[in-house]
Amino acid sequence: MEYNEELYVLNKICEFKNKQTELNFREYEKTASLGVSRFIILFMGIIFFAFVLSDYYFYGKQSTFIFSLIFRGFALILALITFFMAGSFKQYNHTLIMLILTVLAVFALYLVNLYILKANQIAIQFMTIMIFLLAVFLIPNLWKNSVIGGIIIWAGYIIFSGIFGSPEDVPSLNQRGIYLGISLVACAIFLHGRESSRRRQYAVEKHLEFMSITDRLTGIYNRGRFEYVLGLWIKNMRHDPFCLILFDIDNFKKVNDQHGHSAGDQVLIKTTEIITAHIRDNDIFARWGGEEFVVLFSNTDIDRAADLAERLRKAVESNDCGEAGKITISIGVAKYQRTETILNFINRADEKMYEAKKAGKNCVIVADPLTDEATGA
User: Fold this and answer.
1) What is the distance between the alpha carbons of residues 79 and 91, in angstroms, rounded to a whole number?
2) Which of 22, 29, 195, 291 is an active site residue?
3) Are 135 and 103 in contact (CB under 8 A)?
4) Strand 364-366 to strand 284-289: parallel, antiparallel, or no bridges (unpaired)?
5) Is 221 strand, coil or helix?
6) What pTM was computed for the model?
7) 3-state class of 214 per DSSP?
8) 205 noted as active-site residue
9) For the segment 102-115, what is each residue's pLDDT rounded down to a tens digit?
10) In the chain, where are the structural domains located?
11) In angstroms, rounded to a whole number, what is the distance separating the alpha carbons of residues 100 and 95?
12) 223-374 CATH choice from 3.30.70.270, 2.40.280.10, 3.40.50.10190, 3.90.79.10
């Protein structure tokens, strides 16, 4: 297990280059930002509908006002649907797409509404466009989604104003188009910086998390992480049956005394590499402390665990550890019994490991499940 900084490199559109890392980040963001996103969408729909009061003031009970009421009501319904459905998607990426599409759909309804009303309320129109633009950049989303949404809104306003705007309003409309463009660029720059910062913070958190659960020298899990995972295995029993081996590097103190601690560190690292190469990806390997290590074998009965332990012992014995030469390990093996505690489970493997030491080292001793059950282990 090794921390890979390349997994957290950002590309030009402010996303992690590694696709899985990006997906993990989006799921990480889901809990923190989904509630805010839903609220902003709902708020946008309510504000957009609230402008029906302005339409009533200008158009009274004319048929055009009825059309306006229908379109604004439909936009509010879209916002409500998004509000309630945003949390139902399995992938947060689909939620983000839904959010931006809802804003654009409401914006399209707004343009159609303007066309039917033949509205000339320039100030109110511009204010509404700003609400859409702010909504796009306030809703936590992917940077590219927000920029694309902002560009569509800005371009839609420019095109609509150019086609349906009256000649006397053109200068004012053009000025507002320029202001919108400047706002779009400013928001895009700000959002890029914010998104970069959030992803870098995520990378830092992941690095700190990695450091907290791994052994600094060998790069495998540390004792705390191992005990946590073992607790989960016992709690859900999805890996049942499972076995544990606990092994100790023979004569390790002698290596340190004769060759120095640097040679001892190399023995620990080399042993870790050998064991890692001979276990499965879903097995849990950790440094228990000093020169002691533990391995959890998932979905493995005691006979299979004994065979695996013997295979690991031979693999270590057949490799050279540099200055220290050949090394060996003594292994204790135990199968988890449903009635026992974590401490008892580990102690049984530990006892067998010490029996292997007393038996001459470089061997495997297996705890007898029947004997352990009979004694109430």
Assistant:
1) 20
2) 291
3) yes
4) unpaired
5) strand
6) 0.72
7) strand
8) no
9) 999 998 988 888 77
10) 5-210, 223-374
11) 9
12) 3.30.70.270
